[in-house]
Amino acid sequence: MTEGMKDKSSFVLGYEDAVAGTGEEVRRLLKEAPLVLRHMTSHLSKAAGKMIRARALLACAIRQDGSINPDAVKAAAAVELLHLATLVHDDIIDNADKRRGIDALHKRYGEKFAVLCGDWLFCTALEHVSTADTFQPKQDTADRSFTRYLTEVCLGEIRQNRNNYNYRLSEREYFRIIRGKTAALFEACFNAGFILSEEDAAIREVYLEIGSNIGLIFQLADDCADYEASPKVIKKPVLSDYSRGVVTLPLIYALKKDKALSEKIAAGLKPDALKAAVEEAGGLRYAHGKIDRLYKKTLKAINFLDIDIEKRELLLRLLKKAAGIPA
Amino acid sequence: MTEGMKDKSSFVLGYEDAVAGTGEEVRRLLKEAPLVLRHMTSHLSKAAGKMIRARALLACAIRQDGSINPDAVKAAAAVELLHLATLVHDDIIDNADKRRGIDALHKRYGEKFAVLCGDWLFCTALEHVSTADTFQPKQDTADRSFTRYLTEVCLGEIRQNRNNYNYRLSEREYFRIIRGKTAALFEACFNAGFILSEEDAAIREVYLEIGSNIGLIFQLADDCADYEASPKVIKKPVLSDYSRGVVTLPLIYALKKDKALSEKIAAGLKPDALKAAVEEAGGLRYAHGKIDRLYKKTLKAINFLDIDIEKRELLLRLLKKAAGIPA
């Protein structure tokens, strides 16, 4: 072993290694959980996510010399656990049957243990991140602390649930919801990655804007997919949002254009008929227009950054992935 | 305003002011919550707790000159919010009707919002604590970080719930449960208070032991009270543990002494008959014996500390309160 490798903080880590390392760390944390809940965490470890949030953090964390601080892997693993914690609680709240193709945790182990397992994942993630010493909140950036972003995620979830079956939801309030429930965690990832990248503080806001926009695009594309795709493609039932009372942008626009629609819904409109009505009223076209504008804006911001070509490629790939454009 | 008062960190705060300030801060945080959940946090603010955890933190935080670092108020308020978050989730899990004399949150606003409100309280508490700059985890004390203790609390809760209706629960496992679900948060308070007290690091372990023991005594006394008191005194139904399947020390001992008891329970023993059987088998005497031994040990540790008389008095008062001894 060379002198350089002994000193962990100077150990050179590339992007792909860091992604693989994060996946391993998440699996390890789940598989080595205390015995009393290992049956639940083992179940969760069976279905891996696409780790888009971890990838966002790691891509941002790439330094000028192309290396990544090993703390980024810790932070990325923590973000994936946090995301998993929110999914576990979400599934209880939505009474969902499946998640990532396997039984939802509460369906297999009961709500009681799912609440507690979510709490444990949450605590463990925060504990994990607190062991990364370059990742402590600084006084001047307390408003960008990890926990602050998490509070935003909670608020977004609460806002969404408060507006279930609210067919008068405004576009403005919709964006407020998704800015919290989805974009806040993406922004947190970009913030953490930015800190670890050791880039100039002056450029921070650009990173944060890219992060938030990618989160918005990701959620908008997901909300459109609910009205477009076949169950096979999106791995969840089509129009699951509508049947759960979650009102998203394509429907909000359609309700504005087609004044008779809300009465039809109140009378019990079938999913297929709703799908046709949303399409007919231009709801999907409108939502895709929003995605396009955000996409162009974010593309410009990524091209503005003074970064090396590999890092730029990764950020662009992330943007495309969020928008659902094949790589 | 004098020069000294302008500098917040040198502002001299006494214990009673700090306790009052903590209560105000908790109420303010609940009352000024974002509008979307203020109806829930307002409900929670109607019933104040006794703030025994906040008091523990503040008493420990008293410095040699008798003053308290204002950050201690932030940390103490955060601890009370964290405790409140665990109560909200506990009540969902136990399907409890009442808490602190008012409707349990999930009974009034539904489980969905209670899960989310608990999550929000949790995030807000952690966010609040992260704004206290003297209260960041240090690398050498990462195993004593706030989040580490919280993970212990979660694990204790999970262990307890896994052992509901387990009438073969061992005394050893019982102590493992209460060390997590109750003693860990008390120890966290003593740890935080100790850090803020600026005392010598060599004395840290003594503080932690006192904190953990006071937590154990508090839980043991609470578990005994469930077999002793009338509903009026403990503000919750007598034998509520038994009816929820929570097996505690008086019952564990009675089951060991009275071999016929577990069969009687399986056949559906009425609470009054169980109460008599536990008393008859010496379960309460045994549990009180445990409390007494811990009490004496902790008394010794408090007297060992080189602290001023007011601080000692406060710690002794806390110990008595935990054991249920009138001041």
Please describe the structure with a list of short key phrases separated by commas or semicolons.
327 residues; 2 domains; disordered N terminus; Farnesyl Diphosphate Synthase; homodimer; two-stranded antiparallel sheet; mainly alpha; 2 strands
What count of domains describes the coordinates of chain A?
Answer: 2
The main β sheet of chain A shows up as: 2 strands, antiparallel
The CATH architecture of the largest domain in chain A can be named as: Orthogonal Bundle
CATH class category label of the largest domain in chain A: Mainly Alpha
Q: Which series of helices and strands of chain A comes N to C?
A: HHHHHEEHHHHHHHHHHHH
Strand content of chain A: under 5%
Short note summarizing the structure:
2 copies of one chain form a homodimer. Chain A has 327 residues and is mainly alpha-helical. Chain A is built from 17 helices and 2 strands.
